[in-house]
Design brief:
CATH topology of the largest domain: Tachylectin-2, Chain A
CATH class of the largest domain: Mainly Beta
Largest sheet: 9 strands, mixed
Shape: globular
Structural class: mainly beta
Order of helices and strands: EHEEEEEEEEEHEEEEEEEEEEEEEEEEE
Number of helices: 2
CATH architecture of the largest domain: 5 Propeller
Distance between the termini: 19 Å
Strand content: over 45%
Radius of gyration: 21 Å
Helix content: under 10%
Oligomer: single chain
Number of strands: 27
């Protein structure tokens, strides 16, 4: 069932009350109610070419890679916070480093702190030395302490890295941050354990010495893999990556879920989220059920949010000046088990934030 958005809103509580009364009368089985109830707009004075949203102490943050070049052709990477209807810039990470070019960005968030790594992005295959990174630490979201670290190149040298925000993964009794990379091609003599690998840190990103092995048997010959992103849901590991003839010709977007086997080894298999004429954008979980966002591969102005394949919401951007933007590259940010955000920039300087509510009734 697809629930379209209308400009006139109906209260979430009114809808849930109606559903509960209907189900009581017709003795329906346990079901999921999935309703979008709010749409807000947030302005940004900084034109970002890459956004990385995360929640910290129940407030919404963004790591923004500035698309404008200032004098000296410098890059800016801002930490921003949503305050009412605007993104407020709190800190410029990049100006505190000696890195050149646009770095990889890895952000880790837990209840008390934010850790952000900016790591040099050398051309793939030319990484001949350890990965140089700047580690930023904050316990208030405003001020960040900066230190330089290095990560051994032995494991990640021949793997593509992509920027992402993540949570710690608990293995045994210890929590770990992960930096994961994917081999762009499979060779005939490839060991299946070498295609996706992660480095892990158990000291909040200061040292990276632990190798995490990902067993994924469905890695195939003759295609290219890229844009790997790990997901951690209630301490379960999963991955999202692109598959294509080349980076400009994406054929599929795969999602794999993983099971902990032993020590630092995980076995992963495909989760079938593919839908005809829809492009998978992002994945999250509410109450241990998957929620998945898709774009229409023929129309950037149509996106769909599916909950466990039982129902969906059709989203059509408003305040959309750029016809090529739409809701493309929309991101999901989980608030709690009943609420999640779907965020995208529909035009330069304007972000649409859809608040989506979930309810389960008997």
């Amino acid at each position: 069932m697809i629930i379209p958005f209308h400009k006139k809103y109906i209260s979430f509580f009114q809808i849930v009350l109606v559903v509960l009364l209907l189900c009581r009368n017709i003795n329906c089985d346990s079901r999921h109610v999935f309703i979008r109830t709010e749409l807000s707009y947030v302005k940004n004075s900084v034109p970002c070419i890459r956004d990385m949203f995360f929640l910290y102490k129940r407030e919404l943050y963004n790591i923004c890679l500035d698309s404008l070049k200032s004098e000296g052709n410098e890059t800016h990477i801002y930490v921003q916070k949503k305050v009412k209807d605007s993104w407020i810039t709190l800190f410029d990470l990049f100006k505190e480093t000696d890195l050149t070019g646009r770095p990889h960005i890895f952000a880790y968030v837990d209840e008390e702190e934010i850790i952000i790594l900016l790591c040099e992005d050398e051309e793939f295959g030319n990484r001949k030395k350890d990965l140089a990174c700047h580690r930023f630490y904050s316990n208030d979201g405003k001020e960040y302490n900066n230190s330089e670290i290095t990560i051994s190149n032995n494991i990640l040298r021949y793997r593509l890295l992509s920027s992402y925000a993540s949570f710690p993964l608990k293995i045994g009794d210890q929590e770990y941050f992960l930096i994961c990379g994917i081999s762009p091609y499979k060779l005939e003599d490839d060991n299946m354990k070498d295609n996706i690998l992660c480095m892990a840190s158990d000291d909040q990103g200061e040292t990276w010495t632990t190798k995490v092995v990902i067993n994924y048997e469905e890695y195939k010959l003759g295609v290219q893999y890229f844009s790997l992103r790990p997901y951690i849901f209630e301490n379960n590991l999963a991955f999202h990556f692109y598959v294509g003839d080349n980076i400009n010709n994406v054929k599929n977007i795969n999602f794999i879920q993983c099971k902990h086997e032993k020590d630092f080894e995980f076995k992963c298999s495909n989760k079938d989220f593919l839908k005809v004429h829809k492009v998978l954008q992002d994945v999250s979980k509410l109450n241990d059920q998957y929620i998945v966002s898709y774009g229409n591969d023929n129309n950037f102005n149509e996106c769909y949010i599916f909950f466990n394949d039982e129902n969906s919401i059709l989203i059509k951007p408003e305040k959309n000046i750029n016809e090529n933007a739409g809701c493309y590259e929309g991101k999901l940010v989980k608030i709690d088990e009943q609420k999640i955000l779907f965020i995208y920039s529909s035009s330069q300087g304007i972000y649409n934030i859809h608040t989506i509510y979930y309810s389960n009734y008997e």
